[in-house]
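User: Predict the structure for this protein chain, please.
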Amino acid sequence: MKTTLLSIPFFLFSIQSVYANTTEQDIKQKCAQVKQYAQLGKKFYDQKQYSKALEQFKDQAAWSSFCLYNQDISGTKLTENDVVIANNNVGLTYAKLNKPQWARAWYLKDKEAKSSQFNLSQLPQPKLSTDLSGTYVNSAGFGQWNTIKVSKKKISYDLSFEGLYFPPYGLISGPNLGEFDTSMSLKQKHATYQYEDCKITLDFKFKPAEGHVITVKQNESQSGCGFGHNVWASGQYLKVEK
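Assistant: Here is the predicted structure, written as structure tokens:
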């Protein structure tokens, strides 16, 4: 009996050790590819193959951010400026693809950086529209986005939220998820989602320097929302697609 009792925690510890070692190996392997993503992205960009460049630059941005955050494990030497460069690479490519609002979203991730400010100044001014439908995004970290999709129906807008939370190893293990759906009249610019002790408000506005946005506020209670751990809806969501 004693032997059995002693072997169980040792067995569990062994599993945890193997998992930790595997995770560290995955992180090091992925982070070693950051330069490759940047080089391939530039190659395709210079060849004006912007869709292919975008895929590489998105990977560069995601893993640059992730590997900087986990630098004690990743073994890569990255700085905040490397992340700014990667984000701007994505923005520049979106601009070439004639998607200025997606470009704006990526530049605004580092809005204090001079390079981002310059690139923002090169974008066309956002246009006011009476149609609020489209995709709105808010940064979820590691180059990923929380999204609100607004669909126009005959007498109302349907709103669908998909949120993400990335733990420290989230690009390896996957994010926590959360979602909700609600609606509002075509004549309104305010929506509410409420379930149990969870209340979320959504206010639609137009900002001349940014475009159409949704300001989302979630009350302090998270339990009733049914979201995964640490998924949070609050923030400003920028309209990036019609």
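The longest helix spans residues 2-31.
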